[in-house]
Amino acid sequence: MKAIRILERVLTALPMSLLMLLLVFCFVRLLPGDPVEIMMGQAGNVSQAEIDALRRELHLDKPLPEQLSIFVRGLLRGDLGTSYREQRPVVDVIGEAFPATVELALAALLVALLIGLPIGVLSAVKRNSWFDRLAMGVSFLGISMPAFWLGIMAIMLFSVHLGWTPVQGRLSAGLAPPDLTGFYVLDALLTRDWVLLKDALRHLILPAFTLGAELTAIIARVTRSSMLEALHMDYVTAARARGVPEWQVVLRHGLRNALIPTVTVAGLQLGVLLGGNMIVETVFGWPGLGRVVVGAIFARDYALVQGAVMLYALTFLLGNLLVDILYTYLNPKLEL
Amino acid sequence: MAFWRRLLANPSAVVGLVVILLYVLAAVFAPQIAPYGPREMVLTDRLMPPAFVEGGSRAHLLGTDQLGQDIFSRILYGARVSLLVGLISVAISLAVGTVLGCIAGYWRGWVDRILSRIADLLMGFPYLLFTIFAMAIIGPGFGNLIIALCFKAWVEFFRLARGEMMAEGTKEYVEAARALGRGPVAIIAGEVLPNIIHSLLVLGTLRMGYMIIMEASLSFLGLGIPPSIPAWGSMVSAGRDQMLNAWWVATMPGLAIVGLVLAINLFGEGLRDVLDPRMRRW
User: Fold this and answer.
1) B129 to A144: CB separation less than 8 angstroms, yes or no
2) Which of A131, A105, A324, A101 lies closest to A214, judged by CA?
């Protein structure tokens, strides 16, 4: 039964992604300026013949419907075209940048869950204590702080002043990651390269905390309020009356039910972590998709923008889908 | 009157409101308060530290940037951009979202289906990416920035208004109004809207801080307000290059953002407690 519901949900997501694809295709072509001229402008002196040749090569001389059909046919073959700016297939550019973005987003999510969840639970259990007040005050600050500023403050304190972490990038110069998954932390673990692991983690920690700060605050607040709600339910009172130890009441009866809103928020925010990280990637010089896509928009690199934005939208869609599916497992009463 | 009494009895709302008013005063009277013009450069005073730090001078309360511009004065002028962008973009999104949401929630049917699909589609793109894209299409500038921000922000108000409209639409007072022969516009605007406007206003207040952060983020990336107008985001961006030798250039405008957004969020939470108590139980 569950499998059928999930399949149904996946099938309704399909037309949505097709519509998104069309929208991205049209949007990219709304960007002002002739891409060929912008590209050629960087090269300097070029003849009209060269301009025409490039226009043909990029299929920009053809009418829009035909461009769309070329794009879709390529997509079905797993070919997203060639990035002019990078002079190589879009799939390669994205394949290189996407793991960096995902690694950072997952690290930020981990930070947020590891810190936000216990704080939320503890705040609820010790409601109105000094801990609760302090935690909620700090979390309020967390939602009100722009990530780019927090990142710069973190760099100034931990990298410049204290010298604990590197200022920029994913790895120190001179270190080369093995050509495995593209997730440097995972690659280092797989090859048992502890030097690489330490260096990758040192680079990852500040961006992860910066990107995860807002979500940490959100998770702490959501967990606190849903915990409070759960702890006031009759079944919790009943469990206490039966003499169930308090920690079991909190964890098994309280937290399990309080997790539903937390998971929802975390899942929805994963899309934001993946798609809103241009800022953090820019501040920390993180070579991810966010930086690639901003650069590509400015350079009018149609193929690259198309591919990257689509990937973003699909990840976002997938994130929402995952939340819905997780829902059913946490709360069997809920329908998809 | 009862509303004001309850609002003024709420400490977080009062603190938030006072701080917001201070920012508004700073923005309105910037030319009178600021010791320097927003683009006035004193080249002999470049990268002066704030007055409370060793080496600082009373002449530049919060120090100067790499062009010798007074940071305190620029923060005062920058408040204009942040407050205006926050206020106008929320007002437009709220109006558009509410009108469309009421229409979709009242008539349902194909209007609702189309509007809801558009809303779903817009929700499918990350907000920042969407806004960067929109700014790249329509170009930088104050008006364009607001258009880009509103392009997606109305969706949240739409969803809230639609849901509330649907819930209210089946209630007896609406049935009664229909039976009395009142038209749809009169029912929506005269009967239902006064009952649902509270939660929309609370959402609007809470979204305003977010809009201000979005504007600052776009200006930080160089995509928002043109550099000729002092904005907090671009000031932080300029300070980023001075991270190693002049911490105050990036720090001060950022503190201004945090202060304002914090105050707006505090006020929003207080407003919610007063206007919409069922949204918060604990």
Assistant:
1) no
2) A105
